[in-house]
Specification:
Layout (H helix, E strand, L loop, with lengths): L1 H34 L3 E5 L16 H13 L3 E5 L2 H13 L4 E5 L7 H6 L7 E6 L18 E9 L2 E6 L11 E7 L4 E2 L8 H4 L6 E7 L7 E3 L25 E4 L1 H13 L1 E7 L23 H7 L14 H4 L3 E2 L4 E10 L19 H26 L7 E4 L2 E4 H7 L7 H9 L7 H13 L11 H31 L10 H10 L3 E5 L3 H8 L3 H11 L9 E2 L2 H10 L4 E6 H11 L4 E3 L5 E4 L2 E2 L6 H13 L2 H39 L4 H4 L2 H5 L12 H63 L1
Parallel strand pairs: 1-2, 1-3, 3-4, 4-5, 9-12, 17-18, 17-19
Antiparallel strand pairs: 5-6, 6-7, 7-8, 10-11, 13-22, 14-19, 14-20, 14-21, 15-16
């Protein structure tokens, strides 16, 4: 009997095993169905006891049956037996931002190291490990820390499965928590969906402490580097063994500091500030010794990339190179690139009388004066040229009738004489002598507003004279006088440098120096830009040959102080909002802000695959849509302006007290001496003074010197002519004297001859 029962059991054993496998496959299919995935990737080795690709093995039916069940649920699936191909498939999905669910029938410790090295730990990739044991793996042996999303399926009994999830709580420790289970005897899954959503998990961080690197970047963050021991933190727990090598930072304020406080209050987390490595945003490291590319970053971005930090704020700009190493949230600032230079300086007033005529006006003015005289000569001379016709001497015109004088003489001899013909010839008008020189001189005197008489009585010449007089009086004189008066009332300044083209010309011709914050997004724009940005970057590197990196500065604030120093012509490239804030702090009238160069966005930087990025984006979008981000920026500007107003009031009080003390001691006021020179130079409207008219006196002196020089030349020329005339007179008198002497000698000889005879 016993042997019969054993025989029946042995005969039914394959059927029982197959039934158990089918139930196992159905359970896995229902668990996968609870995730509602778009696609499923399965990794199984050939030695696995669960799935096999060996056709000679009876378990090969398991693969087909499992895939068939998945396809009945309308899920796309793919099976890998090669680990390398499996990882390449996940990388391709992450590059395309495609969410991928991965079912792995291997031990987790065999894959975790490869997953972390290949940076496959991402919120879009879920790794489901079939553990198969009654209990999940020991936390001391396996750690599923963020941003890895891991699910471990255990099997406490044959028809039951338990689902453990490492992101069931927002603590970020990677502890596996029971989130669901499957019971084959009852209704299947205990709840659907299989896993809690990230939005519900990370809506409340339950006082989790985040590590935030910061650096001094007003107005976004004000960091005090002098007091690192008394660091600011809203967390009471200051001990952290993993971060002993980092320095705590003391943040005293800033727009992003207020934003982080608001986020921590809304999402219930705490944070600690640490100094960013190098106190910069970060840039790509130099290539290694073998010449290979290095994708690692320095600064705060490098801390995020290596997992030493969770957030990174402070005007962190977005760029393609940075997006390869970290991720960015919804933008916190929509800014634009710009550069700042010194305010347009006041021009020399000695050239004020010439300044109303700009460079594009001078050619037309000179051509008008040069061609006015010849045109006037042509208008006067053409009628004389037209009337100068050779008529026969025996023909006279009386209106339109021609009279032949030869025929008249034949029929009436001795009545008409030739003197009538001569009189007609004399009556024809003759062109005035030296007409061209007189026309040139007439137009010059007319444009220079000197007294002159008309050269011709013809209506054409009179009309042209009137046109010249109107142009000289109303167009030139009145417009020039109005512009000259405005130049005196509001002193002229040099042309502002507000475009990249003008900045390039200023760097090439005037020796301007361009500075940029090191390891910033503006520097990346110059390094990776094209056309003008590439040319500006080349000029920056050549501006100090002995120090090729002299164009790098620690912060935009330092660059604004360099411009305020005024020792040389400088420009600073950066974010327009950052430049505007620092310009307001140092006095807006001393700086010139350029036009918008390009659009740039700043956001909160997080690690690649950050699991709570969607929750953070949701909060930031609500803040942006409600206008709270703009209000926070405006409030920071107003707070700083109030501080500046108080400081300026205090300085004015101290200055007034010092002036009163000096007045009481010396008996006179020193107000004029204590005023800064640039305050007088930058007055918008000033009274007319003699110093503004020095250009007119210079022009008068130049004209007087020219007149004296011309007079001297004329006198010298006249003296030369006088010498020549005197020589001629002397030669004449000498010849006449010789003649007279010869005549006297001949007369004397004749008289003596007569007397002797």
């Amino acid at each position: 009997m016993l042997w019969s029962i054993v025989g029946i059991y042995l005969a039914a054993w394959p059927l029982l095993k197959l039934q158990q496998l089918l139930k196992f496959q159905a359970a896995l299919s229902q668990i996968i169905n609870g995730l509602q995935p778009r696609q499923l990737a399965i990794l199984a080795s050939s030695s696995s006891g669960v799935l096999s690709a060996d056709c000679a093995n009876d378990e090969a039916l398991q693969v087909d049956e499992f895939i068939q069940r998945l396809h009945r649920l309308y899920y796309k699936s793919v099976i890998f037996y090669n680990k390398t191909l499996f990882f390449e498939y996940i990388e391709a999905n992450l590059l395309g931002a495609i969410e991928c669910v991965n079912l792995i029938f291997q031990q987790p410790d065999e894959l975790l190291e490869d997953i972390l090295q290949r940076r496959l730990a991402h919120r879009l990739s879920l790794f489901i490990f079939y553990w198969g044991a009654r209990q999940p793996p020991n936390a001391t042996l396996l750690s599923f820390e963020e941003p890895l999303r891991a699910v471990v399926i255990t099997r406490p009994r044959r028809k039951a499965f338990r689902i453990y999830y490492n992101q069931a709580v927002p603590t970020g420790t990677g502890e596996l928590r029971l989130v669901n289970w499957y019971d084959g005897d009852n209704l299947g899954l205990q709840r659907t969906p299989l896993l809690p959503s990230a939005a519900s998990v990370y809506a409340n961080f339950e006082q989790r402490v985040f590590k935030v690197p910061v650096f001094h970047s007003p107005p976004w963050l004000f960091v005090n580097y002098n007091n690192n021991n008394n660091s600011y933190s809203n967390s009471s727990d200051e001990s952290d063994d993993d971060y002993d090598s980092l320095k705590l930072a003391n943040v005293t304020g800033g727009r992003d500091h207020c934003l982080l406080k608001l986020l921590s209050k809304h999402m219930n987390f705490q944070y600690k500030y640490y100094e960013a490595q190098g106190r910069t945003q970060g840039s790509l490291r130099a290539p290694d010794e073998n010449g290979g590319n290095n994708d690692s970053f320095t600064g705060g971005i490098g801390m995020l990339q290596s997992g030493l930090a969770d957030f990174f704020l402070g005007d962190v700009g977005l760029s393609w190179e940075r997006r390869k190493a970290i991720e960015f949230s919804f933008f916190t600032l929509a800014d634009s690139g710009a550069f700042a230079t010194h305010a347009p300086r006041r021009l020399n007033e000695a050239l004020a009388i010439m300044r109303p005529f700009k460079a594009d006006i001078w050619p037309y003015l000179i051509l008008t004066i040069v061609f006015s005289g010849p045109i006037f000569y042509i208008i006067i001379a053409l009628p004389y040229k037209w009337r100068r016709r050779q008529l026969p001497t025996d023909v006279e015109r009386l209106g339109g009738v021609c009279i032949y004088m030869t025929y008249i003489k034949e029929i009436t001899p001795c009545v008409l004489k030739l003197r009538h013909v001569r009189r007609n010839r004399r009556s024809s008008p003759q062109m005035p002598p030296q007409l061209f020189e007189r026309c040139i001189w007439f137009t010059l005197r007319l444009f220079l507003k000197q007294s002159c008489h008309e050269l011709n009585n013809g209506y054409r010449a009179k009309f042209l004279t009137i046109v010249y007089w109107i142009a000289a009086t109303y167009v030139l004189a009145d417009v020039y006088s109005a512009q000259l008066t405005s130049q005196f009332a509001r002193p002229a300044h040099e042309a502002p440098i507000n475009t990249l083209q003008r900045l390039q010309l200023a760097m090439q011709r005037d020796g301007y120096r361009l500075y940029v914050e090191k390891e910033s997004s503006s520097l990346e724009m110059l390094e990776n830009g094209t056309e003008l940005f590439r040319q500006l970057y080349a000029l920056m590197r050549r501006q100090q040959p002995d120090n090729p990196t002299a164009y790098l500065i620690n912060s935009v604030e330092q660059g604004i102080k360099l411009i305020a120093d005024g020792s040389e012509n400088k420009a600073v490239l950066g974010g327009r909002e950052t430049l505007y804030f620092n310009i307001q702090r140092n006095g807006a009238k001393h700086f010139q802000l350029s036009q918008k160069l390009y659009t740039r966005y700043s956001a909160v930087a997080v690690q690649i695959g950050c699991p709570f990025l969607d929750s953070l984006n949701e909060v930031l979008m609500h803040l942006f849509e409600g206008g709270i981000l703009d209000k926070m920026t405006t409030a920071e500007y107003e707070a700083q302006s109030h501080k500046l107003t108080k400081d300026q009031a205090q300085q004015s009080k101290e200055l007034a007290a010092a002036e009163n003390a000096n007045a009481n001691a010396n008996g006179k006021s020193t107000e004029t001496a204590n005023q800064p020179q640039h305050a007088q130079d930058n007055e918008m409207i000033s009274a007319l003074n003699i110093r503004m008219l020095q250009g007119a006196f210079i022009a008068l002196a130049v004209g007087s010197f020219s007149a004296a020089l011309i007079l001297a030349l004329e006198l010298f020329y006249q003296s030369l002519n006088l010498i020549v005339v005197l020589r001629r007179w002397r030669q004449r008198w000498q010849r006449r004297g010789r003649r007279i002497n010869r005549a006297l000698r001949q007369l004397t000889v004749r008289i003596f001859a007569l007397n002797l005879g």
